[in-house]
Structure formats: structure tokens, C-alpha cells
Amino acid sequence: MQPKICPQCGSLMKLDTASAAYRCPDCRHTVRKPYESLEEAEARIRAKGARPAVILTHRGEVDPRAKSVFDTGHDYLWQENIPAAIRQFERAIEIQPDFSDGHLWIARLTDDEAVERHHLGEILAHDMGHPEALRLMMVLNGRLTPEQIAQTYHADSPELRRADSPIETTTDVLLCPVCGGHLTADEEGAGRVYCRFCGHEEALKTPAQVGADILGMALLERRTQRTRWVIGERLLHCNQCGAERTLPARVLSQLCPFCGSNHVIMQDALASFEQPDGIVPFAVSEAAAKDAIRQKLTGLGERLYSVFDGNKIARAALDGLYLPFWVFDAVLEVSVTTTDKRTLNRDRRWLQLGNTGYSRTKTMAGINGMAICAVKSPPPALTRALGECDLDTMLPYEPKLLAKYPAELYDIDFDAASLEARGRMSEQMREDQLRFKPSEVEMSVSTQVIQMSFSLVLLPVWVATLYERDGDRRLALVNGHSGQVALGKAQKPNAE
Q: Do residues 473 and 451 lie in contact, with contact meaning Cβ atoms separated by under 8 Å?
């Protein structure tokens, strides 16, 4: 059945089954469905040939009765009897309420937005990663147009293009609106920003749940992009003193070296990056971070006994920094297959009773707050060793929260980070299942991600560079919220 195009504006029209009329959702133009005699309908059906098979999108088992009624609905749809087709699809989901394809075809055929949203919601309640339901929901929510959705069916990746020159940026300058002084944040990082000259305080957003994006929707949206830009440098113009300078692509905030004003990059001319969704404030002071590094080094022997005032460390530099992390939440289906080798020692009668020792189970599991560092440096082994932050302390991102410590932009995008997150989630599920496995049992564990959501969060990190007397350097990271230390290996300067 070919879609009907509006003759006035060219949009895709929808059939109102109650009035048997096509209506355009954009310009509201109406076209009555022409009357067709039985002889004309039979001739048209014969000319069209046999109805093609419909590929099911439902994940899981389908009740044979629901499938039979669903097929009858498509027989009516092939005859362009849409009201009868909808009635059959409704019968199919009465038989099996979670049958995704029954809901999907009602959503495709209805002209009622509330009905469409209801059936798409029913699909996503049982299968949160259903691609077709996600596509229709994105159109319904205005995130993508039907033309853009059509582009998501191809497998071509966006073209990667490198910017040949620094890209202009727009920035937010963190200055006091009363006296023009520089704003700063309190030591506890509780979201209070004030002017250290006149004492003026800035009102910030109240703590709230930070929004997250659905990975499936974001990946579909990514397919509609023709170009992805690789930025080497950005150009920052200081509105306070007029100075211009180039910044590395990873810089999100920086002080102007000429007038000292603090600039936070909001966007560049190519819209090449996303703003963070949330920020976890610093809870570990500089002094506490130094103590944590000292304690970490104490256990490594006499050679590295002290960081700042002893033995082999000549000097050290310590800076607070917000590093970007992609934080993922996921719902997974975990399949566990076990074979009990003890059944081999049983007699034939035991085996004949069906006690084969083989079993397979499927369970649903959830993992929340898996953080994947979104920069390539510091090394992933160090950032992963930082441990977790308490995401319950996270605040909605606001540029003013960077008044005290600078922040970096991501150079690892969410799609690449999601692959690492999937691997680590599978590894975690496997470890959980094998932890209590008896030695006589063989077990294989596989996981499938049903749904994944993500957000971009700035996490607090103290970065220390330790300079040894023999010229070696050592990198140490301190989790700015928990105080956990990740210590790198000593390296010669020319080895970096």
C-alpha cells in the first residue's frame, strides 16, 4: 500500500479510519478515500499479486493465535481495508498484550496521536530498545522528521572531516554582575558561587535529577548527520580585554592570560560537541588529596616514601580538574547455561528420568552509573582505577560551577564509549554469575543489552605530577569525591 502524499504541502497524509478520509498533519488538507466496487477491489488485488511476508520485530516468543490474527490483519491491510486491519491487530494484542508488532501496526495506522503514543509506550515498556518504536516516538516528539527517519535505515556512517583552522566559539564569562570581579566556588563544592571581592552570591539551579538520553535514539539521530567534524583548535575572543587566542580542542573552560577572566565555552561555529548534563562537585580538598598520595606511596618502599618533602621526590604539582565521563545505565538480559558434570557419574536410570544436568535460564538485570572516561589522556587504566563517585551528589550542569576549577571536553564520543560500557557490563555479569559456581559445574554466560541510556557528567579529579630526583615523572590521580588514588608508573620525560 503506497503512502498518500498531500497535494498542497507534500507531507505524508494519515488515514482517519472513522471518516475514511486522508488528512495532512501539517496543513490539515483533507482528501476523501474514493469509493471502490467489489469488482474493482478484486481486480486491484489480483494485479498486486500475493501479499509479501511481514517480518516480525517482537523479541521473544509469539503466541500462535496472536500470530494468526496478526496475519489476518495484514491480509485486510493488503486489501486496503484499514479499519478491519486495526481490529485484527487489536485482537492480537488482546491475546498477547506484549506483542510488539500488534502495537506497532496500530501506531503506524492510527491518526490519533494519543493512541499512537499509547501503543508505542506499550512496546517500549516491554522492549525499551525496540528500534521501530524508537523511530516513531522520535517523530512524534519532534526530534526527527519522517524524512530524517528514512535516512536512519542506511548503514553509512557520517563523513569525518578535519577542520583546517581554529573554529570560532561563543563563551560565557564568569564575572560578578555587581562589581565585575571574578566569581569562585566554595571549597565544599555545594553549588554556591560567589564574588570574592564584594561577596555577591549567584543563584544556581536547585539539585534535580539530571536528564539522560536513550542510546538507541542518539544512535539513530547520529545516522542523519552527513558530517562529523574533528576539531584541532578553537579560537576564543575575550570580550573583556579583546585578546584572541587558540585553545586545544579538549578545553572547556580557561582563564584569559591577559585579564584573568574565566571563560566557559558554550559552543563552536560547527556545533561539534554537546554540553555536559551534570557535574559532581569536589568533596576532597587539596590538602586531603596530598595526604592520600603520601599514604599511597608509603606502601611502595623507601624509593618513593614521601611525595612532597622526602627522599626521591624533588617536587610535585597538583591541580584540580573536572574530567568528562559518559555515565551509562542499562537493562540487560542475562543468559546462563550450566552443565553439571556430576551427572556423568549417575546411572542410566537417573538420566532416563530427565536429570541431564543441563539447564539454561534467562534473567533481567540492571546496571546503573557505569562511568567511562571520555578523554584519551590520562590513560584509561588510571581513570578506571579512580573508582566510583556518588552520583547522588550530582548537580545539573551550569557554567558557573566551573568558577573554581577548569574542565575538559570529551574526545571520545558516546558511541565509542558505549561499546566499552557494554563490554564491562558483560564482564561484570559474568563475574557475578561465576562467583558462586561449584567446581563440578560448567557455566557459560552471555548478555544482551535491552536498553541503555547515558549522560555526560563532569567528575572531580586531582591531577598530580611527581618529579623524582633522577628525572623520572610519575602521574597520580585522586578521586575528588572519594579520595581514592590511582598511581601511574615512573617514566623518563622522553618516553612520553
A: no
DSSP structural state of residue 129: T
> Alpha carbon of 292 to those of 66, 284, 285, 476: distances in Å?
63, 10, 11, 10
Q: Is 491 helix (H, G, I), strand (E, B) or coil?
A: strand
Q: Which CATH class is domain 36-151?
A: mainly alpha
* Phi and psi, residue 286, nearest 5°: -60, -40
| DSSP summary character for residue 395 | E
| CB neighbours of residue 18 within 10 Å | 9
Q: Where are the domains of the chain?
A: 1-35, 36-151, 159-275, 286-495
Q: What is the pLDDT of residue 310?
A: 47
**CB of 269 within 8 A of CB of 167?**
yes
Give SS3 for 186. Answer: coil
> Residue 183, Cα to own-chain centre: how many angstroms?
32
Count of other CB atoms within 10 angstroms of residue 232: 13
Which contiguous run of DSSP H or E holds residue 85? Answer: helix 82-95
Report how far residue 97's alpha carbon sits from residue 118's, in angstroms, rounded to the nearest whole number. Answer: 13
What pLDDT, in 10s, does the model give residues 185-194? 765 545 578 7
Please state the pTM of the whole predicted model.
Answer: 0.79
DSSP code of residue 61: -
pLDDT at 370: 94
Q: What is the DSSP string of 311-370?
A: TTEEEEEEEEEEEEEEEEEEEEEEEEEEEEGGGGGS-HHHHHTT--SEEEEEEEEEEEEE
Identify the segments of the chain with pLDDT beneath 70: 1-3, 16-20, 32-49, 155-156, 186-191, 203-210, 299-314, 342-357, 494-496
**DSSP per-residue codes, 412-464:** S-HHHHHHHHHHHHHHHHHHHHHTT--TTEEEEEEEEEEEEEEEEEEEEEEEE
Angle (nearest 5°) at CA 362 between 450 and 102? 55
> Alpha-carbon distance 379 to 377, whole Å?
5
